Automatic annotation (TrEMBL):
InterPro entries, per database record: P-loop_NTPase
UniProt xrefs under SUPFAM superfamilies: P-loop containing nucleoside triphosphate hydrolases
Protein name: P-loop containing nucleoside triphosphate hydrolase protein
Length: 309
């Protein structure tokens, strides 16, 4: 791989608590060690969050959209910076200046977070790079037509919202979802870098239980583990519930984007298998389709299924 002119780009997507960062670290450790000895660069889409002042400005500009009250959602990332970093990693050549990767400190401003200065004190990688791994909860989310949002809102979303007991004041209105959808157009250029995609997905449960209920358990386990190590500092169980609530709309409305790309087919009444086999124009397919892997996880994060897509 080291003889190839450009690195291999791998995207990893999964919900909160699914083990994205853990998997990324395992791959980096394994492939950077003998006998492989590859140059591996890793980053999270979280490190592309806007600086605190811009996050605050976004929230103030859209006071009616609860999804933009804080970081996390599409629209809260610096896409220009992301494209610059990915371009540098792709074009890096032997002997060129080291590339500094951005860092976002989530502990600053009472947990609102801020980007740290890119002043040479952060993570530096030396070109050429063999493998670039980028992970994040919304990796591969593509915009969909407004009519598709309308269909999912009336059918899938109402079911999920009822099963999970979510409040509109936290998860937003249909117009708020359409605002998120609009900014996703900016992310497509970022996705175009990636050759391979790994999706971590919770297993389907019974008809009366939301598939996404597992995500709450995973995130709650993370919070409890952290609090056991830091003297109890962290979110209450109720706060964790509200935290995860804000991300569920993304999975319902955009979570099949890594398969369908800029979806132009009606999937609101289709099963998951039908969605995966839907006929989508080849030109709208993501670049990684045909070279990617779906990893299905049970409640304990054990792998219970693998599927190529």
């Amino acid at each position: 791989m080291s003889s190839t002119p450009t690195p291999l780009f791998v995207a990893i997507q999964g919900p909160q608590g699914s083990g994205k960062s853990y998997l990324t670290g395992l791959i980096q450790s394994h492939l950077s060690s003998p006998p492989h000895c590859l140059r591996v660069a890793t980053l999270s889409i979280d490190d592309l969050y806007l600086p605190h002042t811009q996050l605050k400005s976004l929230a103030e500009s859209y006071p009616e959209n609860p999804l933009w009250k804080g970081r996390g959602q599409p629209g809260t990332h610096d896409i220009v910076l992301g494209l610059q970093i990915l371009s540098c990693l792709k074009q890096g050549r032997m002997g060129r200046q080291r590339i500094e990767l951005p860092r976002f400190d989530k502990s600053l401003y009472d947990g609102e977070g801020d980007r740290l200065p890119m002043d040479g004190t952060g993570s530096l990688v030396q070109p050429p790079i063999d493998l670039v791994i980028m992970e994040g909860w919304c990796m591969g989310f593509y915009p969909i037509p407004d009519r598709e949002i309308d269909e999912r809102w009336d059918r899938l979303w109402q079911v999920e919202k009822g099963l999970l007991g979510m409040d509109d004041s936290i998860v937003g209105t249909k117009e708020n979802i359409k605002q998120i959808n609009e900014v996703l157009h900016r992310y497509v250029d970022v996705w175009s870098f990636f050759d391979i995609f790994i999706q971590l997905k919770p297993a389907l449960l019974t008809n009366n239980v939301s598939q996404y209920s597992i995500v709450y358990n995973w995130r709650l386990e993370q919070e409890h583990s952290m609090k056991s190590l830091n003297g109890g500092k962290g979110m209450s169980d109720a706060a964790v519930k509200l935290f995860v609530d804000r991300y569920i709309p993304g999975y319902v409305f955009f979570g099949d984007g890594m398969i369908n790309g800029e979806c132009s087919v009606n999937t609101s009444t289709q099963s998951e298998g039908d969605i995966r086999n839907a006929t989508v124009p080849q030109s709208s397919r993501p670049p990684w389709v045909g070279k990617s892997l779906l990893v299905v996880l049970d409640t304990h994060r054990d792998v219970i299924g693998l599927e190529e897509f």
